[in-house]
Amino acid sequence: MEFRSYKAPLIRAEITVPGDKSISHRAIMISALSNGECRITNFLEGEDCLATMEAMRKLGVEIEHPEPGTVVIHGCRGQFTKPESDIDCGNSGTTVRLLSGILAAQPFSCRMVGDASLSKRPMRRVIEPLRQMGADLKAEGEKESLPLVITGSKLTGITYEMPVASAQVKSAILLAGLLAEGKTTVIEPAPSRDHTERMLKYFLVRTMREGNAISTYGGQVPESRDFVVPGDISSAAFWLVAAAAQPNSRLLVEKVGLNPTRTGILGVLIRMGARVREVVDDLDQGEHCGTIDIKGSYLTGTEIKGDEIANVIDEIPILAVAGALAEGKTIIRDAKELRVKETDRIAAVAGNLRAMGVEVEEFEDGMAITGGMPLKGARLKSFGDHRIAMAFAVAGLFAKGETIIEGVECVATSYPGFQTTLEMIKSGKGMRRRGLVVLGSGSPGGSRPLQSDEDEE
Question: For strand 379-381 and strand 366-371, is the pairing parallel, antiparallel, or unpaired?
């Protein structure tokens, strides 16, 4: 399967995006730990989140799927049953790492496996703290990778200082701490996304934060509650960059998550020259949710490094494309973690940008991109990585000639409906002289027409 992109007309649109992937994973797991029935709506039905849902079913959790985007989980108070066979996590690092924390406290052994890509990703960072809590974990693959065998036991809370900021590792420890004796504290070197802490609080679990230390207490059972998953800002990021790099464009993204640990991309785009406004409409579930209004401009290069990296780690591929479209140099550092994602994202981004005529200097922990030169169409590889595939589909919207991205089946892991929105933006189908066109996204909810610029204040 391929994506084909070519230079797009001016973007004047409003969209919604599918449910947040990170939140969908956590909603399934924390609901399964709860004491009753939980209805999750706007659940992301991408392959990664479906892998989490099937894993919980394999552990004995009753899950209904009454309609697209809605799942009903019958919580079992954290008491699961031994699976009859291996748990297949597919391509989902979130599934295997967060589930490790839950399985570490179960009175049985089980084995988690994944696809070829996931089986290359290191598990040491999650294995070490769970071993300190009392669980027995053994990675059977090379360099402590999958398959991962976990023999659960009675856990004891620990204080763990993380060497690298990682929301997945932090979440695994906190979920294990919920099933352990005593207090569990995680100290992170820099703030990472905090969906787990917010969701635990929403499900009435006591947690505490002091600076960069987050604590929870064992013996608590989440209270069953319904939850609506906001739109995924990491999915919106591709269209935000597309609009930001087009002078006089305007894009609104509605019902999207605006969690402060996830909106780093907006700060980067503002530094680069885009005009961005965000409006928080909802905080009822502990997650900021609302609207992003972005107007395009001539972008200039910037630096992305240090503590900011944890907040934009998933958006680095598309921000690198923004750098290629900006005047001057964009420097990305302190992002070595990208070497061990679904692919080596630093090498993949650098290689694809060079193929499009961009000058890129590659570092061990990032890259320097010299932007401002016209992009040229090329045949590119996704490397089996959904974010690489989508980032370069957007790059193709600015290139001379046709850009073809091979192997885009991986996009189904996180953004069903991406191609539909891509085709609409490429064609400008339905765009009107006044007002903004509504573009579908493959997600529930729909959109409404917007007033024209002439009606703006």
Answer: unpaired
